[in-house]
Design brief:
Elements lengths: L1 H12 L39 H5 L3 E5 L16 E3 L4 E6 L4 H5 L13 E9 L5 E5 L5 H6 L2 E6 L10 H13 L6 E15 L2 E5 L4 E9 L21 H14 L5 E8 L5 E4 L6 E14 L3 E13 L2 E2 L4 E12 L6
Parallel strand pairs: 2-9
Antiparallel strand pairs: 1-3, 3-6, 4-5, 4-7, 7-8, 7-9, 10-12, 11-12, 12-13, 13-14, 13-15
């Protein structure tokens, strides 16, 4: 199953939302880059440079805002330093160089790697041990080669692939499992690091290109299983028989030794039936569901299409997973209760 997830993630990553002047949902329309760069290949070269006085004053910083702001709309008065868990948290990275140029010293003269750029974030809660997280691939090779500033969001409400959303959820899952984000006020430090995917080998890790911090207030009961922003939307339908069949099959085929499937949320209102293109005979039926899994240090959710082959006048009692419908994501373990 994990190989299916990885393949689906690669397919999804290519359509991830770019984040400089393309709108985060609810934001404004695209505007051209402030300073167009010269035509690029996939390696180091000219980038946007410093885009203006605000960029110059904040090089190497992550700044945080309460609303989604384009490059031309943001100003120092927009910056925020304190949020509550559940509030919209937007960020902008002001880098000295594009990610491609930042990692160039580590690349040993390689000239075509912009398409392999990824980012990771390292969080620290109240100065504690680092929590390393990953940002799912987003953007084009051209954007990674040219952009010296881009924006993202923590806890996106729409379920879209906004940069930073998955990293912050990973922080919540891992830090809460450690007991680091209980009720109260917490200082959150963030480092942004570009990496280069390196096949089956560990990624090539670049330098820290931006840092920032903010205060996060966590109220008692802030994480509720019925909260679709921090946890998940409710099931589209409830059917104990189908849920148990999916859960049992997931436990039989699960490949992640660090977690164990615990709950199933059906995400469609009924079965989808598939027919033979010539005879019209039903060949199988499928239904989509999220599988929530618990581990000792984090919890995850993954979406699958669960299908049963047609047999005689009915269907096989034991189905299988025909494909990953959603990439693996983290969530607080309190969401599984």
């Amino acid at each position: 199953m994990k190989s299916i997830i990885a393949f689906a993630a690669m397919l999804l990553c290519g359509s991830a939302l770019p984040a400089q002047d393309i709108p985060i949902p609810g934001g404004k329309a695209r505007t051209p880059p402030v300073k167009p760069a010269t035509p690029r290949t996939g390696g180091p070269g000219a980038d946007q440079g410093i885009t203006g006085p605000l960029h110059a004053a904040n090089v190497g910083k992550l700044v945080f805002t309460r609303t989604d702001l384009e490059l031309r709309a943001i100003n120092a008065g927009s910056f925020a330093s304190g949020f509550g868990l559940g509030d919209p948290i937007y960020f902008r990275a002001y880098m000295a160089k594009s990610s491609v140029n930042a990692v160039a010293p580590m690349m040993g003269g390689q000239g075509n790697y912009a398409h392999r750029i990824r980012y990771r974030m390292i969080f620290r809660v109240d100065g504690g041990a680092p929590v390393e997280t990953s940002i799912r691939a987003w953007g084009t090779a051209k954007e990674h080669a040219e952009w010296t500033t881009w924006r993202g969001q923590f806890l996106d409400r729409t379920g879209s692939k906004v940069p930073g959303n998955d990293a912050f959820r990973e922080l919540l899952s891992k830090a809460m499992a450690r007991g680091q984000l209980g009720p109260g006020s917490h200082q959150i430090e963030v480092e942004l690091i570009p990496t280069v995917a390196n096949g089956d080998n560990p990624p090539i890790v670049g330098p820290v290109v931006a840092r920032g911090s903010f205060t996060l207030s966590v109220s008692a009961g802030a994480v509720r299983p019925d909260d679709p922003q921090i946890c998940l939307p409710p099931a589209a339908m409830r059917n104990a028989g189908i849920e148990n069949a999916i859960l049992n099959r997931a436990r039989q085929t699960w490949k992640d030794s660090a977690t164990r499937p615990e709950r199933v949320l059906i995400t469609h209102t009924g079965w989808t039936f598939y027919r033979h293109p010539v005879s019209g005979i039903v060949t199988r039926r499928a239904i989509d569901a999220r599988i929530l899994a618990r581990g000792s240090t984090y919890c995850t959710v993954q979406g699958y299409a669960y299908s049963q082959a047609a047999v005689g006048s009915g269907f096989e009692s034991q189905g299988d997973f025909s494909g990953a419908e959603e990439y693996t994501s983290y969530l607080p373990c309190a969401c599984l209760k």
